[in-house]
């Protein structure tokens, strides 16, 4: 490939009640860059870009798009050529058509996920050292997308061979087929992960925290505000990725991961970590089981051309809820 | 009462395999004061007393005794008079008959729990500032006993009216009867708690940690050493007591709580916190459910005179596993 | 003695600008119970009493009183008898004459410190589990007073022999005379400490934090709000007391210590820790030197009868700024 | 440029007493990969490469080389061409001539720093999830070099324009000249920083910690082992870079920074943060002054061809110890 995808950039989620959503994400410690009656733009404390989470008021909850930042507009042109050659129909959104964003390219990826690429977003003041504004879980920045797709191995090969991602860790399922994989462009554990399941769906958006105590503090603050039922899983340690994690469900059921503790994956000769079925380390490191909802539920995604929900396909691998927990 | 019980002092537990037990408690960060082929004496990092946990090798796991430190030997005499008047048969153990301990008084309390009082224990060097020896969860000191008894209200009245404990928090069950209660002599949340259930049994021994990160570190260390299956519940925040907690099962199934985060209860006019059935704060603060094992399983206790296991009685209140979690 | 002093209760400080003081203490995370144009009443997050810090607007900064809570009003009568016998003139303040406080007894102690005893203070809601209100350094509760006095050994003997305090740790100076001492009623390291220097003066009021990260967070928040110049010393670890500490100067120069990490001192047979001149552990544990201001500056105190400043006396021991740091 | 430098790779330091050095770095939590009578190879807990710190026993302390990892051997050839064109004499070390390392290219950079590039290093097991081996400050990985050079602006231009580094933050000195600059290849705050001073010298090697409590724990462990005198500065927060830092001096005086808390710098349009002379945030965020030694002392470096020490040059900018602290 001759284009350069930099990192996970932002998610655009449809929500049904902006006030409820604002209260929830505000409690988590997001900074509201701006909003109107139909939209809220949130960013993390260290982010110098206008937003990493755009909530749009709609009649039904769904994922409009997950977006990656690329190096330059030239990369967008190259991506258009690439997708067109592949037979995928792309959609251009001109600068100005989306708040704070330059020109962008949207496409349904091979798994059916609505994916967008952009090079430019308006910058704003970082709040990194405005510790007086830190609250809740003190969300620092967007980190990754986790997607449930029917054929993980196909997605894995495509993102690595065609889009230039590298694999940090993966889980082998039946007949050594890849059941789940963590892929990155920035040198962290992942910008995107794929896991086997009915899809395409967005399982969660991961946000980075600066330290483990922010996650504990986040639990306390959420609980004191009545959000204990929104805590779905954790806090715990992932064996895979080594993340100290917490999974939350927002008022529309979109899943948010608070995340701290991965490692540097900059080296071209880094060997992906394989997790074997019989390795007890593969389970949640501390031995807790995830609730069924964590395996069964995910956010449905929209068609970038029609705006309608994409039909789910059954997964290639049979095991939907492994004995191990990702 | 005219005697002065100072605090929770030590537990004497029967275990079936000293090597397995040593490996587990050592991983948690306990300091081994001394040991022989039949006994291990452990203490926490700040403890200046010889031990707070005495493990005895026996064919069957059980609780031999839970011990409280009193102000002076004179208090032991007064306690003897008190128990004798109550019609309870006491048992004296002379100085020298137990390692490192002065004269002690043992008795089966009104719930059938084997309880001991002592004034004197040999002192040893504190390891408080030997940070180079800190490891695992960095256990600082013994904090409390939690006991499952058939009639909590009776135990509650007895410990408060007769033994001079004060109540910090309690849970009201059917017909405003006390379902569980947290009682203290030292000005923390508790030295002993009672909860409704088949008993008398020892539910857990609580040990104090200095900060929340020690608990998280403890989880990681335990898991890396293969003890993930020993993590029964947590980490989480108790609504009741505000503790940041972790429950572990030792190799014989004895339950240990790692505990951080209570508050000062020194004031005579401190009003016990009542937890109402419909108060959502009463549940585990972050909303997790405890596993059934946490409600069903506890360590059986021995008769101080015969050394045989005490028969269990059914609890007075019907609810054994409330919708709330203690 | 036949009276029972429970613990350090509150400080009443004179400040010159209530707005500046409010901004500072609010940034630290204190809860403002109430205020008017002349007064602000602050408490920590876990405190169920009306206040532990009372700021009064006055033309000049000073310490009006440091107050201890006693068990009952009866104890106040006994303290009156005691002080009167000693030849000290006491002053009664009737219930209602001080906001939220019951009857109180004031006296100049043998070092000249203005000391008050009270049994009753109005209770208010604890904010312990209102984590949504936690901010800054998340101050939990008042912990201790540290006083600079001309004759530490005299104060030491008096507080132990006459008032029933116990010593946790002390520093021996010239000719084995006590240069500084940490004394407690509640079973922590101290309710009051005395150090050698021109006095009587209040060196600082110590407030308890729940964990070390709250202290780090507090530094960041203070700095982001422009209070970096108010950070006088730390963060660091005291060898003596093992406290993880931070010293701040409020807008009038009153010194506040944020404090985490002491240990349980409940046992009657706890042997006070002696710090020897040549023991390197006696210094700040991590090896930092305290600034001169920390040794030289302290808050002047008022006469309980005249309301005028008490004259300073030169200390008995020559060393005012030891090579070690307390 | 057509070569791809990945990241800071390792430092090779000459030390005079291997046993003393081993004890120090072991206390910090480094993993010793292997050693013999002349060498110790250390790595951090998450590092999958053989070492990031190579200590060689020599009569005199010095910096032999600071090394960067490049993408492939091809990049080494391109770097050779580049340096040769620039008139710099390079030195090849063939695979096998250095323990665990593939072919490498050494050169004196324009400031006189001994710099090395390599593509290949033997891999070893990561200890990331061997939490039972974590100790001291739990050092995770090498992060950056900080170098004192006589002409920062020249170095800055060269590393950015010729070697492909990007600037995250910088400090402007006299006449808007760059007094110090933080440059990165991996998307963190820096792989290398340059500051104005007599040079070329290595000011410190920075190692990454996973969380702030590891730094606090590290202070306690070091102090308990007698290393308090080795703590030169901190803990504190840098305004510049936002790092939570601790500076240590090893037994030969080499300076080590323990470091946590920077931010993601992946974006091509990230605007370097400029620190102005009159901005109080530029100072150490919490307001502490650095000791003189921190500005005056640094490790001398060797000539890659002769092995002799490089003569120091006086800095271009006059201010050696600014009122601000980096």
SSE topology:
4 copies of one chain form a homotetramer.
Chain A: E1 5-15, H1 18-28, E2 31-35, E3 39-43, E4 53-57, E5 62-70, H2 73-85, E6 91-93, E7 104-108, E8 114-118, E9 141-149, H3 152-161, E10 166-172, E11 178-184, E12 192-196, E13 201-208, H4 212-224, E14 231-237, E15 244-249, E16 255-260, E17 273-275, H5 292-296, E18 299-300
Parallel strand pairs in A: 1-4, 5-8, 9-12, 10-17, 13-16
Antiparallel strand pairs in A: 1-5, 2-3, 3-4, 6-7, 7-8, 9-13, 10-11, 11-12, 13-18, 14-15, 15-16
Task: Summarize the structure in words.
Four copies of one chain form a homotetramer. Chain A is of the alpha+beta class. The first copy, chain A, has two domains: 5-118, 2,3-Dihydroxybiphenyl 1,2-Dioxygenase, domain 1; 137-300, 2,3-Dihydroxybiphenyl 1,2-Dioxygenase, domain 1 (Roll). Chain A is built from five helices and 18 strands. Chain A has helices at residues 18-28, 73-85, 152-161, 212-224, 292-296; strands spanning 5-15, 31-35, 39-43, 53-57, 62-70, 91-93, 104-108, 114-118, 141-149, 166-172, 178-184, 192-196, 201-208, 231-237, 244-249, 255-260, 273-275, 299-300. In chain A, the strands form two sheets. In chain A, strands 9, 10, 11, 12, 13, 14, 15, 16, 17 and 18 form a ten-stranded mixed β-sheet that branches. Chain A has an eight-stranded mixed β-sheet with strand order 2-3-4-1-5-8-7-6, covered by helices on one side. In chain A, strand 2 (31-35) and strand 3 (39-43) form a beta hairpin. The longest helix of chain A has 13 residues, at 73-85. Chains in contact: A-B, A-C, A-D, B-C, B-D, C-D. Chain A binds chain D through residues 6-7, 46, 48-49, 69, 71-72, 120, 123, 126, 128-129, 140-141, 186-187, 210-213, 239, 242, 260-261, 263-264, 266-271, 281, 285, and chain D through 6-7, 46, 48-49, 69, 71-72, 120, 123, 126, 128-129, 140-141, 186-187, 210-213, 239, 242, 260-261, 263-264, 266-271, 281, 285.
